[in-house]
Amino acid sequence: MDEVFKALGDGSRRRLLDSLNARNGQTLRELCAGLDMVRQSVSKHLAVLEAANLITTVRRGREKLHYLNAEPINAIAERWISRYDRERVHALADLKNVLEDTAMDGNAFVYTTYIRTTPERLWRGLTDPEFTRRYWGVKFGTDWAAGSPMVWKEGGQETVHPEQVVIEFDPHRRLAYTWHTFTPEWAQANGIDGETLAKLSAERRSKVAFDIEDLGDSGTVKLTVVHDGFEAGSTARQMIQHGWPALVSGLKTLLETGDTLPQPQPQ
Description:
This is MarR family transcriptional regulator. There is one protein chain. The protein is α+β, with helices and mostly antiparallel strands. It has helices at residues 2-8, 11-22, 28-33, 39-51, 71-81, 90-100, 119-127, 129-136, 184-189, 194-202, 235-257, and strands at 55-60, 63-68, 109-115, 138-141, 151-154, 157-159, 166-170, 174-178, 207-214, 221-228. It folds into two domains: 1-68, Winged helix-like DNA-binding domain superfamily/Winged helix DNA-binding domain (Arc Repressor Mutant, subunit A, Orthogonal Bundle), CATH 1.10.10.10; 105-257, Alpha-D-Glucose-1,6-Bisphosphate, Chain A, domain 4 (2-Layer Sandwich). Helices cover 43% and strands 21% of the residues. The strands form three sheets. A five-stranded antiparallel beta sheet has the order 3-10-9-8-7, with helices on one face. Strands 4-5-6 form a three-stranded antiparallel beta sheet. The protein has a two-stranded antiparallel ribbon with strand order 1-2. α5 runs antiparallel to α6 (90-100). The longest helix is centred in the last third of the chain and has 23 residues, at 235-257.
């Protein structure tokens, strides 16, 4: 938290966050173009923001793209807002909402967290049905080979579609797959009304990727979730930006403590 507050205390770094808030997924060159700072200064400020986990980076070919990351703001909000009068930290809550509601470049949602575990256990947490059931309520029916179909088993229902497939499967390093079909059965089980279901069904299918980085002797693993492929103004994009922080927090808690977080009621 000290690093987060220190990073937010500098006006130049706040302007960088504002720039990413306006258009996420920018390269260093693009960020420099919008600010009255030399490239070296921007790089130093970005390093501070990345060290505080306020931004995360994703490689796309030869380019390094910078994204806002809501995880540390979520952590601060949970630590402080629950203990003090909300009005006293109104600005902090507003910042949390801005970061969570950001429409990222290509409408991608990027979320990075650090978990005290091993890459092997984290991999099990993402793929083993007994793990996913505990923090997600979902079991995946698949052999996990690239191109293989995936069956989503949730709430006594099975969602099957030929476009639900595994995209990448690199054990302990990277996993990617297409998102599930929005069916009437899924909507009923999750309290989704007919109008929202119609909007979801009309959108193109998105995909999610999990990148795992072993931080060595620290006993900590870096997990980056990238969910993209959304259309502009996507209803699914608005929904998953609130769902992923809760899911990742549940996974983190399970791996670090052996316990699960209480399951929230569908809204």
